[in-house]
Amino acid sequence: MRASLLQIDVNDDESVASRRRRVADLVRDQAGVDLVVLPELWTTGAFAYEEFAAQAEPLRGPTHEAMSKAASDAGVWLHAGSIPEGAEGGTGSAAEGALYNTSLVYSPAGELVASYRKIHRFGFDQGEAVLMGAGTELVTVELPETVVGVATCYDLRFPELFRGLVDAGAQTFVLPAGWPERRRAHWTLLARARAVENQAYVLACGTAGTHAGVPQAGHSIVVDPWGEVLAEAGPGEEVLTVDLDPAKVAVTREQFPALKDRLLGLDTPAR
């Protein structure tokens, strides 16, 4: 199974429409690959909070149209990163339940087969955390070669979400992000930790460039079920392509069956 992570340069000098066209062409260039992954909020930038409402679009809006056609043209499974999802026919506020950080997944026929509203919103009571509503559902997608569990950026810090995805059958985690450069060490550490503890592949695709004054980490990374880094991008825009062996997940879980020793439902000690 061959996967390509498209580490897109997101900067304030390029219009959303122009970047959408450029990224669609990059997806088409991946014909022959099985799975293509884009970053989080690559249309607007993950830290461009003031643009969320202005650039919000319905699930089947302009980004959907462009990505659906690009996936079909290339004949690839496409995790199209995420968009600021607004209510059909308009935008709104998180309080109205109308804005979400929503990932889109397409089949090689261009069909929208799954969407995931980001559960853990970043910002500590500001930014995304107050501007967007929280998702409530775990999402998996069955590809011919593997079962993909979908997560987004800040979700990476919450291992219980990934345990839930494993319980739902996930063998490969796909995580688009807009991760800042100043916390790049955490990015690499947490991606490897999620792979090791769940004995699963991690495909984590970030952005390059600087948007809303926040330099991005880049360094998209692919980690195998033993925690070994198979490929890592640099800081700039880059296409990171890697071959995966989906059977390695089952082999790892059989040879080192740590997941069978999980203890669930432990009582909280009295204080």
TrEMBL record:
Signal peptide as annotated in the record: none
Gene3D superfamilies in the record: Carbon-nitrogen hydrolase
Domain CN hydrolase: 1-246
Pfam families (alphabetical): CN_hydrolase
Alphabetical keyword list: Hydrolase
Origin: domain of life: Bacteria
GO molecular function per UniProt: hydrolase activity
Family as reported in the entry's similarity comment: Belongs to the carbon-nitrogen hydrolase superfamily. NIT1/NIT2 family.
Protein name as it appears in the record: Carbon-nitrogen hydrolase
Lineage: Bacteria, Bacillati, Actinomycetota, Actinomycetes, Kitasatosporales
